[in-house]
TrEMBL record, chains A, B:
This is Transcriptional regulator, BadM/Rrf2 family. PANTHER family: HTH-TYPE TRANSCRIPTIONAL REGULATOR ISCR, WINGED HELIX-TURN-HELIX TRANSCRIPTIONAL REGULATOR, RRF2 FAMILY. PROSITE patterns: HTH_RRF2_1, HTH_RRF2_2. The keyword DNA-binding applies. GO terms for molecular function: DNA binding; DNA-binding transcription factor activity. It comes from Caloramator proteoclasticus DSM 10124. One of its GO terms (cellular component) is cytosol.
Amino acid sequence: MKLSTRGRYGVKAMFELALNYGSEPLSIKTISEKQNISEYYLEQLFGSLRKAGLVKSIRGAQGGYVLSRPPSEITVGDILDVLEGPIEISECIDDEDNCSRIEYCATRLLWIKIRDSVNQVTHSITLEDMVNDYKSMNIITSIKRGE
Amino acid sequence: MKLSTRGRYGVKAMFELALNYGSEPLSIKTISEKQNISEYYLEQLFGSLRKAGLVKSIRGAQGGYVLSRPPSEITVGDILDVLEGPIEISECIDDEDNCSRIEYCATRLLWIKIRDSVNQVTHSITLEDMVNDYKSMNIITSIKRGE
DNA sequence: TTCAAAGTTGACAAAAATAGTCTGCTATGA
DNA sequence: TCATAGCAGACTATTTTTGTCAACTTTGAA
Ligand code: FES
Ligand code: FES
């Protein structure tokens, strides 16, 4: 079980926007350089994020992207849901395999528990939390250096 | 984020063995029929499970597989670790991308939290738990039917 | 007004992972 | 001794992931 690059890149890109929140928009190009992600690939991801209403685009010269809500109101789960899709462990649709008899399915409850656990974690961490963590990390590192 | 068929099939197969624990060994063929999984594919999975020491094989006529420990001592996490590999969110090795500067990495802490959460859930649920859940489900269903 | 920066869209494709199949083999209990 | 069942590993097909690219649209700024 792993996160694809869509999720990983997406969170990193959104983190950049969160760091920059309140200032001028960030262009795809800028973000792609900062996080070392393909510009073209990022465009795809931002297409999804925009459709989902997580970011707003500002066209024209000096345009770019901004968060459509404050970082405190966007969770990592919101981003991952858009880019990775909701966690689908099993189909639960096909009526032919024996897994469709939900009442008797031994594993269904298990998948639900795993999914809920991940959702609980990802939806409880906001971009603001990440920015705060990041800033305290930097302060601690500075202190360690004796600055 | 999703579980591959390896993990899903593997847990289902191990659940069958747990249901059958204490009785005669179950052959790949039997399991493949009960859970409707390709016989050849299951062989692959059981190869891994055997090497990991989760199951024992009994060769020859009337042979098959049995759990090598009681169901209460095998967690779902044990199975998933073998079949899906441990949860690798990011590489954290390549020194060239900016993600390698772990002290400054904004997302690393996040991936760790997600991973730990999944591990905590999967490693706390044993095959015995699943069997118990399954049995209570059946009882409840029977009562609802007025039996 | 013109131009260049920047977003938008959708097609395309390489690469990797997943899922599944098959063949020939070995071991062993009945 | 032979049918049953596991063992090993090559092989293939399919899907998903991970990008790339080109043509087009919008719009702020000079
Ligand atoms: S009913 Fe969907 S996992 Fe069993
Ligand atoms: S250092 Fe591995 S995720 Fe950043």
